[in-house]
Design goal:
Blueprint: H1 2-8, H2 16-35, H3 41-63
Length: 64
């Protein structure tokens, strides 16, 4: 996860389209790493859902 965060640093300076592309690339790389553990497709989805929920919670906390 640390590596994924490092990849995403500095994305705020990019335009929206470039940022979206980099995010998709990072998510694809991360999914490949999860499968290398190995995780099933369902487990990968569960991990991704967990981190998405964490991201949403952090955004809400920043907004308050």
């Amino acid at each position: 996860m640390y590596e994924a965060r490092q990849q995403l640093r500095g994305l705020r300076e990019l335009g929206e389209e470039d940022r979206k592309k980099k995010m998709e690339e990072a998510n694809t790389d991360l999914a490949k790493k999860y499968k290398a553990i190995p995780l099933t497709d369902e487990q990968v989805k569960g991990v991704q859902a967990f981190f998405e929920e964490q991201r949403k919670q952090m955004q809400q906390q920043r907004g308050n």
